[in-house]
Amino acid sequence: MFYIPTIAVLLTCHNRKDKTINCLQNVYAQKGINIDFKFDIFLVDDGSIDGTKLAITTNFPAVNIIEGNGNLYWNQGMRLAWKTAFETKEFDFYFWLNDDTILDENALLNLIKTYKVAVEVEKKDVILTSACRIAADKNIFSYGGRTDDGPVIPNGNLQRCKYINGNAVLVPKKVYEELGNLSNDYTHGMGDFDYGLRALKSGFGCYTTNDFIATCPPNEGIPGWCNPTFSIRKRWELFHSPRGLNIKEYIKFRNKFWGIRWIVFAIKAYAKMISPKLYKKIS
After folding, report:
1. Strand-pair partners of 64
2. Residue 155: phi, psi to the nearest 5?
3. pTM (2 d.p.)
């Protein structure tokens, strides 16, 4: 009998009902369902008050909804979704998905096929991140794989990457068994980069798709914590906020993978926050 791999689709959301519903519609519209793969969805509704939960239960009753406390943000929300999926049943893959990321109709099928090719090339298991475009009609990179030189632009070929954006990422069971969940060191950001670097350190590969397979508009403009239009008080607040740089967790991340050089990164960050005109000069 032909074996059909299973996928746990993991999401976390907060007060973005329309985006969340649109995202889920695209997941259920994927080609290859029940033929090339099967999936279950585990979604953390992190304290939404905009009717997100009701809209999901009405339109997609099969979604497993986990209620958060409103303070989980991305990394902690995804940790909870992942933990719940793992404890529910065994899956062959775990798929991180942001609710503002719209998958092409063949995205999951493309990921599974590309994953198989990458494993053959590497002769070991790999994490596969999706190349996302800025808009449905503009094949310009927004999120996906990155190296120290910048974004890895899809060119039709299989390409390795060093850093992974967590917008749409396929993680095989074997990697999870080795690395476990996203790190508990982070509240919102940096958990995705951390996971990719941990995977590389443990001997796994990190790849990006050979073409754009999803759409996700990028965050525009200068980050608030170093935006010159904001007051120093506001920049300081964002400098320590989960939705800003979150300097304590940023230092922890840098120290974990760059050792003593975290000091240099920290000095640069403080300098950018205090004097935003330095943002591009010392990036």
Report:
1. 42
2. -130, 15
3. 0.96
